[in-house]
Amino acid sequence: AALYRIDSWGAPYFAVNDAGNIAVRPYGASTSAHQEIDLLEVVKKVSDAKPAGGLGLQFPLIVRFPDVLKNRLESLQSAFESAVQALGYDSYYQGVYPVKCNQNRFVVEDIVRFGSPFRFGLEAGSKPELLLAMNCLCKGNPEALLICNGFKDAEYISLALLARKLALNTVIVLEQEDEVKLVIDISKKLSVRPVIGIRAKLRTRHSGHFGSTSGEKGKFGLTTNQILSVVKELHGSRMLDCLQLLHFHIGSQIPSTALLRDGVGEAAQIYSELVRLGANMKVIDIGGGLGIDYDGSKSGNSDLSVSYGLEEYASAIVNAIRVVCDRKSIKHPIICSESGRAIVSHHSVLIFEAMGAVAPTTPAMNQINIPFIMEALSEDARVDYWNLSDAAMRQDNETCLFYADQLKQRCVEQFKDGTLGIEQLGAVDGLFDLVTKMIGVSEPARTYLVNLSIFTSIPDFWSIGQIFPIVPIHRMDERPAVKGVLSDLTCDSDGKIDKFIGDKTSLPLHELSGSSGGGVNGRSRYYLGMFLGGAYEEALGGVHNLFGGPSVVTVLQSDGPQSFAVTRAMPGSSCGDVLRAMQHEPELMFDTLKHRAEEFCGFDAAALSGSLAGSFHNMPYLELASSCSMTAINNDGF
Ligand code: PLP
Questions:
Q1: Where is the signal peptide (predicted)?
Q2: Is the beta carbon of 98 within 6 A of some atom in ligand 1?
Q3: pLDDT digits over 68-78, tens only?
């Protein structure tokens, strides 16, 4: 566990159990030993074939833990409640979840349900997000906020006003100055009194990757002068009482509470000025930014790490607002936050399999046929070989490596010229590997091929270099003997992971031929988990090479013999699904190919059509386990 720093980034939800497997602690610090869920047991239950009592789902696999989601929400709420109480703050905290972080129906529904006792709401940034938020909040607490952010057209604004008519506590946050006119006009037309917020561009800047939207030149929000003209416009339309909320967003992954205090303090000043100008201010919405300590270092000096916990975060905010409001003698506002990453990151684990490792095989000296190589070498290459032998006798490693490398390069040139055969080139490669091994040049990392698309499942690694903790979910009681990097299934050189937490360029991994994990066809299974990826990754993933979304299961803690129950299971996108996403029509494609089989394959046509139907129905990933569910071959058609 120490090798992978699980206690640092995983606490309080992930640990290693006595069996050497990752244990999920669904209630965080208050999980008792018998409530821990063995992740390997979950994986077996989900992937074992149906006749063996499993669900027969294919990898990759997302395992969701709603109990963890509930614990995150409650922990955030209680951090703010404690800060409010400890600092004598005279109002309360009322958060919203920005659905963009993970729009999955069950995630959003769970958040609304779990957050209902403390009026937790939702934030939307586009029309479909607003539609889903409206629908989910119909079952939520009537006081829960529905914050409408993002760029808006007349249709978006009409929809948000409709939400108010439906008695949802909706706030239209102006991101651009022009939006105010639309809101005034449409609300008059629809006879709805809107509640309006303003998103302010703060001067405070967050210098990390996620801070590019902050500062005066940020993409979103209103400058000081734009805020003043919106106030004027609303005043002129006798609607200044509608302006009730101030919003800002410093950027995701705010690294320190010092930056937070600075930004929140600035925003609280704007808030108090809006009060002075006559707006009916009630809520300060501090946006997202509550960070995750992905590498467990608590250093706060990169996008990977933050130097505070929930309690420090909440208390820095409450205090910064209180100080400004007390100084200006204004009523303490309701504090809203839009934490996404901090709420959903921990709740799911992506599990994928390593299928094989590519390691250089070094021949023994007596396997290298030196006369065979020599007969084809140029004069210069022969001299390199003699110099190499000479240096080896003298045990001069540096010179050895120099001549081995030069010999190899000359042989590559000879091969390109056509004067060296492929067998001789292979023998020279072997000689080079042997020399580097003998003089102790460290063995390069092995490439573990994984049954995954990084573009689909870990898109932030590819696009912005975001690093997540990746660890084997079992065999923690065996010392890993190998250093590995991960290479995915896509035909793309960017489809690899060669950066890991702790500034590492390889990951300690076990030999695939190792003992545990449950063998299939003589091959042992090796499962890796990517943790803390519950936010953004599912929403951002694409279908590069037409590898679609993973299978997804929901797992709840239960007091039964296994300590867990799988309450929902959904196979990943099939080949047909991903083809449809690119406007192909799988049913028509199947018919075309079936007719072709009938035309060309005679008696075999029916069996071939059945096999074709299976190909459309199955997931695009490799079918590694004979136990997994290949769709039954169906001769009746698609
Ligand atoms: N609110 C707004 C306006 C955002 O742009 C974002 C994300 O960047 C969030 C909330 C969520 O931020 P985080 O995931 O850091 O909590």
A1: none
A2: yes
A3: 999 999 999 99
**Which residue blocks in 166-297 are alpha helix, DSSP H?**
179-190, 224-236, 257-276
User: Which numbered atom of ligand 1 lies nearest the CA of 341?
Assistant: 14
Query: CA 532 to CA 327: how far, in whole Å?
Result: 40
CA of 531 from ligand 1 middle (Å) equals 20
Which residue among 136, 325, 491, 601 is the active-site one?
Answer: 491
CA distance 344 to 69: 6
Residue ranges in the chain modelled with pLDDT below 50:
514-522, 626-636
Look up residue 379 and give its two tokens: 């004069």
pLDDT of residue 56: 94
State the pLDDT at residue 625: 59
Domain 67-341 falls under CATH 3.20.20.10? yes
Can you give the residue ranges of every domain in the chain? 1-66+342-360+445-572, 67-341, 365-438, 576-617
Query: Is 1-66+342-360+445-572's fold the same as 67-341's?
Result: no
In short, whether 338's Cβ falls inside 6 Å of ligand 1 is yes
Q: Which stretches of 261-396 are assigned E, i.e. beta strand? A: 283-285, 334-336, 348-358
Q: What is the pLDDT of residue 623?
A: 85
1-66+342-360+445-572: CATH homologous superfamily? Lyase, Ornithine Decarboxylase; Chain A, domain 1 (2.40.37.10)
Concerning whether 242 is annotated as a catalytic residue, the answer is: no
Q: What is the pLDDT of residues 150-162, one digit of tens each?
A: 999 999 999 999 9
Query: Is any ligand 1 atom within 6 A of the Cβ of residue 254?
Result: no
- ipTM of predicted assembly, 2 dp: 0.99
Distance of CA 582 to the CA centre of its chain: 24
